[in-house]
Amino acid sequence: MDRRTTAGPGPGRRGRAARGTGGLRSALPSDIRRRNRQTVLKSLYPDRWLSRADLAKLTGLSKVSVSDVVADLIDDGLLVEGGYKSSSRPGKPAVLVGINVKGSAVMALDLSEAGLVRGIVTDLAGHVTATEEEPISPGTLQPTVLVKLSRRLLELSPVPVLGLGVATPGTVDRGGRVLAAPNLGWTDMDLAALLHGQLGVAVTVSNDADAAVFGERCFAGGTDNMILVAIARGVGAGVLIADHIVRGSDYVAGEIGHVVVDQDGPACVCGKRGCLETLIAAPVLEKRIAERPENRDDILTQAGEVLGVALSMPVALTNIKDLTISGPSDLVGTIMLEAVENTINDRVHSRFINRVDVHPARLGRQAAALGAVACVLRHELGVL
Ligand SMILES: [Zn+2]
Known about the structure:
Elements: H1 29-44, E1 50-51, H2 52-59, H3 63-75, E2 79-84, E3 95-99, E4 105-110, E5 116-122, E6 128-135, H4 143-156, E7 161-168, E8 171-172, E9 178-181, E10 186-189, H5 191-199, E11 203-207, H6 208-219, E12 226-231, E13 235-241, E14 244-245, H7 276-280, H8 282-291, H9 296-318, E15 322-326, H10 334-348, E16 357-360, H11 367-381
Parallel strand pairs: 4-7, 7-11, 12-15, 15-16
Antiparallel strand pairs: 1-3, 2-3, 4-5, 5-6, 8-9, 9-10, 12-13, 13-14
Residues 258, 268, 270, 272, 275, 277 line the site of zinc ion.
């Protein structure tokens, strides 16, 4: 998820944002500074300790630039000195610098669950240090609920907060505006600007499946080419290619729930028949299992086969081998996952195309919130 959304002051605490990006022009000193900061932070993130001389060697920046940038980042509380480099040479050993992981915090809100908004606070390495929930009733979600919950999270953080990430269902544009989120009753809601105005922190807003795939990538050992399919009230997907979230021309990439997979299938709320959601959404599967509990394994196998058939072509098209399925654990278990994996590999595997690995979301219910944290870290610090 690249420069997806922002309403924040830009990189660093002093708001050294690059000004304007249109047209041809030479790099401004502020652009170079920003790039150098990102290069140094990236070299150290999350837990590498290097001397200034080693940082210069590693990054290709001059020793003077590195000293300058490191001093700035220490000032900003993002880097910290610690320990000395062991050396057999005589003289003063070099001081090591590293990321001040606990010196700043990131907040995130996950709006994807029915009935509650989940809030978390993490350190800069994505370790959760506090959680808060706010119950919500069905219907339109009032942004004041999010402001209130965010303020509670801010109070829980004893260190400065780098930014707030929000994972929301629906379509989100590059600027953090929610174009449509029917489940929340939102159309054209400029969420990033609204929250930034109320809270005064940098805000990034992402689609929940996009956030979840990025969370799995950054904090759960995911690869740089991944698909995450979320089976919930609906069915959606996040797609990561070469470490970039694929958003598509209208920001609706991954909205696979209303693609027809069975022309003779059940009627769908969208007016078509046999959309993927009508066959494998969580409430559909739960209802079918409740009606015929003895057929549970068959129902889940069939659902896995339907999803496997649907995903075979995009898997071949993109050569993605890492496929994550998230959803309620009583549905998304071994039976369904094996059916998805076998179905895809039966169709796609060949001399030219390796087998696809299908597994559950490693971060479980935290995937979207942690992904929103990762978006803030990428946007504000250029790491991840
Ligand atoms: Zn539909």
